[in-house]
Specification:
By secondary structure, this protein is mainly α. The protein contains 17 helices and 4 strands. It has helices at 3-9, 11-14, 16-34, 43-51, 54-75, 87-117, 123-149, 152-168, 196-217, 224-245, 280-296, 339-347, 356-370, 373-383, 385-388, 393-404, 408-428, and strands at 261-264, 269-273, 306-309, 324-327. The protein has a 4-stranded mixed sheet with strand order 1-2-3-4, with helices on one face. α11 (280-296) links the parallel β2 (269-273) and β3 (306-309).
Length: 429
């Protein structure tokens, strides 16, 4: 059958208006949430978020439509032509059309999301898309083999439902390894991309299952030996993926540190993603002044040598300990740096369970030293109902005025004592 004829009569092409409308609906439901990536865009992050929901749907549709096409060819007597046309040659075109159709829909969602975020696809997006194409091909092969043996009137909906559940359901379980082996696309963060282990674990079980079904029920006559080999192939794929992922948490070990980084100044050197480093010089000047004031007041032991924005730090956690800090510098955000959060991170956790009302004194003193007391008081008024009612503000400000009148040595002693007091109050409370 000519490829042009296949395109005119293929179930995937005939169903394209319906599937296209459905995927467009899915895209517009997530469209509003894609905009927040525009302030600090990373193509792989945008793409992985956009196709997370559509991929299980595309896989289910690929399997179901391939099953329909296989049954249609059986009805036309194509499989009875014998040696004149090999089964592989017959299967290639129908499977290819299904893959192209579903991959086209995924590509449309991806391009739409990237255009909203204002970025172009890069090699990491193409890598992710290539993985999806492999998965769609495997699901199409599964559906085609099943549809050749069982009539599509019942096999197509059953295989579609089985694929959708098989891809999506494990994501809701507490067995973390299952989240990474079904072919569901996990979201990667800024400066990240799918690593080789993530990619292999995602495609291996599905590809091996497709090969196993081809071996077991693909030939005209089912043989016991082929069935035994197929079980071995399918089991090997799942066990191999389990071996890769058994120690992973819900977050897979993505390839990190891929985004370009720009650094400015010394003591501290401030590093931010290049895409959001427009105010880097001003930020470095502010942080240099603030850290020296904090060192003078004894709030920190030493001025950090480097401060990295959390979007490109490793590990990605807020920390102001030692010589290398990781802070939220709001790269690319028009709202600016949340200085109250910086003060909170600088104070840190003096113990496992401090009394937060007591620790507010340390944090306000830190914010005052940094010159951002107003930011912290504003945050406190939003977060604390008792503070909004005016019960705590006067006490805090009165104590700040008192400490401000102490000598530098007394201020350092007060700060240390107040941290210890917060821990004692937390234990007794």
């Amino acid at each position: 059958m000519r490829f042009s004829t296949t395109l005119r009569t293929h179930a995937a092409v005939l169903a394209f208006p319906v599937t296209g409308f459905f995927f467009a609906y899915v895209f517009f439901t997530i469209k509003g949430r894609i905009g927040h990536f525009a302030s600090l865009p990373w193509p792989a992050e945008v793409a992985s978020y956009a196709i997370h929901a559509p991929v299980p749907l595309a896989a289910a549709a690929a399997a179901g439509l391939a099953a329909v096409e296989a049954t249609r060819l059986r009805t036309l007597g194509v499989w009875e032509m014998g040696p004149a046309r090999s089964a592989l040659r017959v299967a290639v075109q129908p499977v290819l059309v299904v893959v192209l159709t579903m991959a086209g829909l995924i590509a449309g969602v991806t391009v739409g999301a990237l255009s909203i975020a204002g970025v172009l696809p890069d090699a990491y997006v193409l890598q992710l898309f290539g993985m999806v194409v492999v998965l769609l091909t495997a699901h199409a092969v599964i559906g085609f083999v099943v549809g050749r043996r069982l009539h599509a009137s019942y096999s197509a909906p059953l295989v579609s439902i089985a694929v959708f559940i098989g891809v999506s359901f494990p994501l809701g379980t507490s067995a973390w390894w299952t989240h990474h082996v079904t072919g569901a696309v996990g979201q990667v963060g800024f400066g990240e991309a799918y690593s080789a282990p993530m990619t292999i674990a995602a495609v291996l079980p599905t590809v091996c299952l497709a090969l196993a079904l081809v071996l077991a029920i693909g030939p005209r006559h089912i043989r016991i030996g082929a069935v035994a080999v197929s079980v071995l192939v399918a089991g090997s794929g799942l066990l191999g993926a389990y071996g890769i992922t058994r120690e992973w948490t819900s977050f897979a070990p993505a390839a990190k540190g891929l985004a370009p980084v720009t650094c400015q100044g010394r003591a501290p050197e401030v590093c931010m993603p290049t895409a959001g480093a427009g105010d880097l010089e001003e930020i470095q000047t502010d942080l240099s002044s603030m850290t020296r004031k904090l060192r003078t007041k004894g709030i920190i032991e030493e001025v950090p040598s480097r401060i990295t924005d959390i979007s490109v730090s490793d590990p990605r956690r807020l920390e102001a300990i030692g010589t290398e800090w990781s802070l939220d510098l709001a790269a690319g955000s028009p709202a600016g740096i949340p200085w109250e959060d910086v003060a909170i991170v600088v104070v840190g956790m003096p113990c496992k369970n401090p009394n937060w009302n007591t620790l507010h004194y340390n944090t306000l003193w830190t914010a005052r030293t940094m010159g951002v007391a107003g930011d912290y008081l504003g945050w406190l008024s939003r977060e604390s109902s008792s503070f909004r009612k005016g019960k705590g503000e006067e006490e805090l400000l009165t104590e700040m005025d008192r400490v401000d009148g102490l000598t530098l040595g007394e201020q350092k002693t007060w700060y240390i004592g107040q941290r210890r007091l917060s821990c004692k109050a937390g234990q007794s409370g």
